[in-house]
Design goal:
Elements: E1 7-10, E2 15-18, E3 23-25, E4 28-32, E5 39-43, E6 70-72, E7 79-82, E8 84-87, E9 107-109, E10 114-117, E11 120-122, E12 127-131, E13 137-139, E14 142-144, E15 149-154, E16 159-161, E17 164-166, E18 171-176, E19 182-184, E20 187-189, E21 193-198, E22 203-205, E23 208-210, E24 215-220, E25 224-229, E26 235-236, E27 246-247, E28 251-256, E29 266-267, H1 270-278, E30 292-293
Length: 294
């Protein structure tokens, strides 16, 4: 635990290995590495960082759930993860670890005064970064290969900017609890969902969203306006030339009511786009100003 009013500063190249425990931050954690010498938080089984700490050769390998979480509590101020690697966490069990049942993440942020930038958050149990109803800055990170979500925002208004979010088993970004984040300039790929919003109203602009298994963007609520940019956008094909596709503008808007257009969906006319949405039996009163602008 870092008590309120106290600061723990880690130098570039420092490694921290864990087995079950949580780093509880009530004060300030300053973990500022460099590109050449990142700070690493990882599993005690991770021989790639600091050698064979548990002394078993190659008998064990690291995995999500090996240790707990870096928990930034509400009183934490001016904490920074910069050029830091956090991996194989999320598994501390029980209220003794200040996580409820599970920590469910490599990093859990409950303070607006936290910055995570230029870092790698990977291989976490359930989520890479879990964010409560606060608005931290998450900028320029690689967030990958977590067992469910890259980012999990619960009522958060965080600024999610310029990250690479990939290879997470469920959602690249998962929004719940009325989250209102700004999601800008990210590359979101090879997840199951790119962005998955439940009862939340994100602002989504200038992202590249591609090769996600189910949907690029899935929005599950009554009505929302979305502006998105991504490489798997719907395509209009000319009626008489299936071999000559004409890509629509990569910036498009959807008024949406409990439906989503799957990544890579193709239409051969604007009329068919409208029919697609009308076929979902969405009441016109819930879809003002038309359906889809392409």
């Amino acid at each position: 635990t870092i008590p309120a009013g106290m600061t723990l500063t880690l130098d570039p190249g420092v490694g921290v290995k864990g087995s079950g425990a949580v780093l509880l931050v009530n004060g300030t954690l300053s973990a500022v590495g460099t590109a050449a010498a990142p700070i690493v938080f990882t599993s005690y089984r991770d021989d790639s960082a600091g050698g064979d700490t548990n002394g078993d050769g190659t008998a064990t390998t690291p995995a999500a759930n090996d240790w707990g979480t870096i928990v930034f509590n509400a009183g934490s101020t001016n904490s920074v993860l910069d050029h830091t690697v956090v991996r194989y966490g999320g598994g501390a069990l029980g209220s003794n670890y200040h996580c409820g049942t599970y920590c469910y993440s490599n990093v859990w942020i409950n303070s607006a005064s936290v910055t995570v930038q230029n870092s790698t958050i990977a291989n976490g149990y359930f989520a890479g970064i879990r964010i409560g109803a606060v608005s931290p800055a998450i900028t320029g990170n690689v967030i990958e290969s977590n067992t469910n979500h890259g980012l999990w925002l619960e009522g958060s208004s965080a600024a999610i900017t310029g990250n690479t979010i990939r290879n997470n088993s469920h959602s690249g970004i998962y929004l719940t609890g009325g989250a209102t984040p700004t999601i800008t300039g990210n590359t979101i790929s090879t997840n199951y969902y790119g962005i998955n919003a439940s009862g939340s109203t994100p602002t989504i602009t200038g992202n590249t969203i591609s090769n996600n298994t189910a949907y690029a963007i899935f929005l599950d609520f009554t009505r929302v306006a979305v502006a998105a940019e991504f490489s798997s956008c719907p395509t209009i094909r000319p009626r008489n030339s299936a071999d000559d596709p004409v890509s629509v503008e990569r910036t498009w808007q959807v008024w949406i009511a409990r439906f989503a257009i799957p990544a890579g969906t193709e239409f051969d006319s604007q009329e068919k786009v409208s029919r697609y949405i009308e076929g979902l039996r969405v009441p016109r009163s819930q879809v003002p100003l038309g359906h889809v602008w392409l």
